[in-house]
């Protein structure tokens, strides 16, 4: 049977509080003999601390929460792995929950995590949170534990944030296509109301305008960051007679590549592609896809380091950390200069 604190206290003839303080290496006014006896009884009975019981004394559960919008998206599964692995080194367990890009799930899962006594929260908000900003911001502002917005942020919310410069990333992508002679460039976006989308369109638009290139209405095709939405844009990309396409995330690029393959469109011979997230080349056949890399390991570790400081009250000023993405050139862009 699992030995509890009260069993050790009874055997050592001391209070439960004394046992908990000794086993948590906290200061305690009992003799060194009693301390050794408590430690021996715990060891002999293979005592393992109950984190819930311990939290009653220490007021911490050594548990963190992570809300992500799409656990099937490689970007988020990689981010989750980085955060979970890193926090574990510091004795923190991570509870991971998936909002499926629905803001009501963000709010429900937030309460579910708080009910489990998490000490801190990482959140990559859902696409639809941008359509319900006031409600989500209000909820986050009420939090009494440290929280960090990761990857997807609300500019107007004065809170800790770690994210990438999406304007820069999309500018690099479009500029690379333009420097290879492309002037008719499609852009497959995420949901138009998402901050991520606005920024990634802004960078594309900046590069096009800098080179005096027209952005025709049918160049801009809205997806939702998921594979199927990328697949659904394939016929429109073919019909709009652009020579290149900038896809604002890898999952949509995967869907687009599938549809283009079905239609016999060759990359880069018939159409050049630059994607975003740089995660596909481990999985697909054919030419490597030129892409914007968002160093997920750096994103996750930066967020964890900030969280650890917040948990130890070593950081009080709000930090908004913007990381630089990088263009990784492979073989999916044809030079037509
Ligand atoms: O692929 C998912 C996208 O949404 C990534 O580019 C990341 O920025 C996330 O916000």
TrEMBL record:
SUPFAM superfamilies registered for this protein in UniProt: lambda repressor-like DNA-binding domains, Periplasmic binding protein-like I
Enzyme class: isomerase
Keywords from the UniProt entry: DNA-binding, Isomerase, Repressor, Transcription, Transcription regulation
PROSITE patterns referenced in this protein's UniProt entry, alphabetically: HTH_LACI_1 (PS00356), HTH_LACI_2 (PS50932)
Keyword DNA-binding on entry: yes
Location of the HTH lacI-type domain: 3-58
InterPro entries: HTH_LacI, Lambda_DNA-bd_dom_sf, Peripla_BP/Lac1_sug-bd_dom, Peripla_BP_I
Gene3D superfamilies linked: 3.40.50.2300, lambda repressor-like DNA-binding domains
The enzyme's E.C. designation: 5.1.1.1
One annotated GO molecular function: alanine racemase activity
PANTHER family cross-referenced by the UniProt entry: HTH-TYPE TRANSCRIPTIONAL REPRESSOR PURR-RELATED (PTHR30146:SF148), LACI-RELATED TRANSCRIPTIONAL REPRESSOR (PTHR30146)
Name this protein carries in UniProt: LacI family transcriptional regulator
Gene: purR_1
């Amino acid at each position: 049977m699992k030995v509890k604190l009260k069993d050790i206290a009874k055997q050592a003839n001391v209070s439960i509080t004394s046992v908990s303080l000794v086993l948590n290496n906290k200061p305690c006014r009992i003799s060194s003999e009693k301390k050794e006896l408590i430690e021996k009884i715990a060891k002999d009975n293979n005592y393992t601390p109950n984190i819930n019981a311990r939290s009653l004394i220490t007021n911490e559960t050594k548990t963190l929460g992570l809300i992500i919008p799409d656990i099937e998206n490689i970007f988020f599964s990689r981010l989750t792995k980085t955060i979970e692995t890193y926090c574990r080194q510091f004795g923190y367990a991570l509870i991971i929950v998936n909002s499926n890009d629905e803001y009501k799930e963000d709010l429900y899962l937030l309460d579910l995590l708080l009910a489990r006594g998490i000490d801190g929260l990482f959140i990559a908000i859902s696409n639809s949170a941008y359509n319900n900003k006031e409600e989500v911001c209000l909820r986050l502002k009420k939090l009494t534990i440290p929280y960090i917005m990761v990857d997807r942020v609300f500019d107007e919310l004065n809170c800790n944030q770690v994210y990438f410069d999406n304007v820069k990333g999309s500018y690099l992508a479009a500029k690379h296509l333009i420097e290879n002679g492309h002037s008719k460039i499609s852009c497959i976006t995420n949901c138009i109301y998402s901050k991520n989308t606005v920024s990634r369109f802004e960078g594309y638009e900046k590069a096009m305008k800098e080179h005096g290139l027209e952005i025709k209405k049918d160049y801009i095709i809205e997806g939702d960051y998921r594979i199927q939405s990328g697949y659904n844009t394939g016929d429109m990309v073919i019909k709009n007679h652009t020579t290149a396409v900038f896809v604002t995330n890898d999952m949509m690029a995967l869907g687009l590549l599938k549809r283009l393959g079905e239609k016999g469109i060759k990359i880069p011979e018939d159409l050049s592609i630059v994607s975003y997230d740089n995660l596909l080349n481990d999985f697909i056949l054919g030419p490597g896809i030129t892409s914007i890399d968002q160093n997920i390991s750096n994103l996750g570790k930066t967020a964890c380091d900030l969280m650890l400081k917040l948990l130890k009250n070593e950081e009080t000023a709000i930090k908004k950390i913007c990381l630089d993405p990088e263009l990784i050139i492979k073989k999916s862009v044809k030079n037509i200069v």
